[in-house]
Amino acid sequence: MMLFGIQAFSQESTEERLLLIKANELVFSDPDETIKIANHLLKKDFSESNKALLNLLLANSYKAKGDLQKSTTYIFEAGSNKKISDSLTIEVDFVKADLCRKLQLYGQMEIYLNDVSERLSSINNNDYIRSVSVRSELERAEALLLQKNYNASLKLIDKAESDNKNITDAYSCSANLMLIKGTVLNYLGRATESGSYFKQAFDFYKKQRKPNTVFEIKVLLGTGQMYFAQKEYKKALDVQLLALQKIERLNNPLLKEIVTYQLAECCLAMDHKIDHQKYFSSFLTINDLNINMENEAVNTIYSLLNKEQDITFTQEESRLKFITYAGLILILSLALAGVVIYRINRSKRRQLKEIIGYLEVSNKLLIQSDSGKKEVNKRITISTETENVILAKLKKFEASTKYINKDMSLATLAAQLDVNTKYLSEIINKHYNDNFNAYINKLRINYIIEKLKNEPEYLNYKISYLAEESGFSSHSSFATVFKTITGIAPTVFIDLIGKEVTEKKA
């Protein structure tokens, strides 16, 4: 990123270029300083490309801090200008793909990686093209790792390793490649091999001479897992405590969740019961906060994607209007009007059929397919008897309307059902293929849909009332979740339901 970063600021003052270089150097070691510098530079009257570069720096800085929601906001701002260079757009797409992978939005991740591949056709630098291809392979390998498809992940990493040998050092991905391969080997039970790759990863990293605290932490976490697998618990504990110190300085909750879990496991293996309880309690607290943060980040991504689609639609609409007006000069206005009316009516009929089809299956929103269940990173073993008891309690909860309580949370529901929060979260993920927030949101949306279908007076209520009635804290969050689940905005849904009711009466 530094290469085109300096080029982008070539027309700016020496002071501003030096600030940019400093900000870029500190992204993954002192993200707070990078954020301060980037915000300072954004106040100046720069070109759109320069602003996109600064927003990219901000997105990477917040990603280094584990704040996925802010990172998402800034990276979409960076990519909002379609006139930026292909190389800068590629970097933006890589950050978007990385965020989608972290949030388990694998389909959207593939869209961005495919866009990266398409843009390579305009690049003349062969080393850069190979480097980008290797980075894409590693991104997909990490996605397979999160899905616990370790053998497929390792196969893709081996291909990336072979491709990386043909790249000069300036574009080499060796450090990240060795780190990811060591991590996969750990999960495959090949701890001794993984240790050598972690060492190689750190050696390659030191040659780069650019501080990256996030990378150092990941190497330490992988090394700690290796020692734990070899039952060298004292070494594992020391390495994990060192990682915790670095994480505390970085203030990254996602990494802190991982290290507190590893520390809890290590203390348990060493029979340090008090320390085990301390770290496990910390892990549970951070895990709940991270679930909420990740859910907010997912909602932000969907909201920004909808916004991008609306902008594209508006631009396309303007283009079509221009063509239509030009055509009016050449052809009969009556014939053209007839074609336009026919297309509009056909579109409306298709939309009405789609919503009627949706209404027929709306009561099945919570039924999940066993074949589509996601894997989770930390699978918890629960006895069949306990699992059935929790499921029975959930069914009673779903039959009530307690889920529309605005204060409903994982901890609150666990207390009401008298179950452990981790068990409850695991059962919801396993049987409903959703995290807690998505599970509650679907119950609430299904509740308000039933009201709209069966109680006509609800069609006259304001969206803010429907949001409050179904337990959402705001009009905007209700609208976002409603569109995410049903595929259309609540106002459109209400309008179509109203038309259906009117037609039935007629």
From TrEMBL:
Leader sequence residues: none
Protein origin, superkingdom: Bacteria
SMART domains named in the record: HTH_ARAC
Residue intervals of the HTH araC/xylS-type domain: 404-496
Keywords: DNA-binding, Membrane, Transmembrane, Transmembrane helix
Protein's UniProt keywords contain Protein biosynthesis: no
A Pfam match: HTH_18
Segments passing through the bilayer: 322-344
UniProt name for this protein: Helix-turn-helix domain-containing protein
Coiled-coil ranges (or none): none
SUPFAM superfamilies: TPR-like
Keyword Membrane attached: yes
